[in-house]
Amino acid sequence: MSDQSENTTASGGGPEPEPIRFFGTTWVGHDGGYGLRRAAVAAGSLITAFAAALLLRFAYQGLAIAEVGSFVNVLVVVMFAVCSAIAFRKTWESFSRRPDGSPSEDSLRSLKTIGFIGSLIAYALRCLSEAPGEKLRRAEYESALRQYEKRRGTRSGNPAARGTKGRPKRR
Fold first, then answer.
1. Residue 136 and residue 98 in contact, taking contact as beta carbons nearer than 8 Å
2. Measured CA distances, 5 to 58, 64, 142, 155 (Å)
């Protein structure tokens, strides 16, 4: 669980929800233009992926003009396809679980950078159903709320007076 979800508000009212990029904490109550934000983020991701695909097409045409050979052309296409597939999968998985910080995650960073189109598509598809990472953060937030209520509900009276049974009071 993240440290932010365990933070309490300034008034001591319990844990605060963790903000999500582009959504802030509007995901909690689906208010503050949440639906419009989801649509805008999905559209923005798709437009960016389309623009990136056009840039890659220009780069591929540059390779064709340079006549580097069919092997290099196929290699470039396969490289971007595989990197995009890996980036899509890893981005999609990141919406349902926190990264574990393992060295394998760090070693895939360059592949995810090359396959950024896959990440953009995963982000856009996830926005169609929820804010990316909302399900994970909602589960963490609700768990933190339950723990807070449980801790708060067990308290009663003056905490300093607890545990004085059987012991003489200090004077």
1. yes
2. 45, 52, 9, 22
In this structure, what are the phi and psi dihedrals at residue 99, rounded to the nearest 5 degrees? -65, 140
Q: What is the pLDDT of residues 156-170, one digit of tens each?
A: 655 655 555 555 555
| 79-102: pLDDT as tens digits | 999 999 999 999 999 999 887 777
Q: Give the global pTM.
A: 0.77
Nearest to 28 by CA among 14, 16, 40: 16
Evaluate whether 107 touches 114 at the Cβ level (below 8 Å).
Answer: no
> At residue 121, what are phi and psi to the nearest 5 degrees?
-70, -40
Cα gap 102→135, rounded to integer Å: 23
No. of H helices and E strands in the chain?
Answer: 6, 0
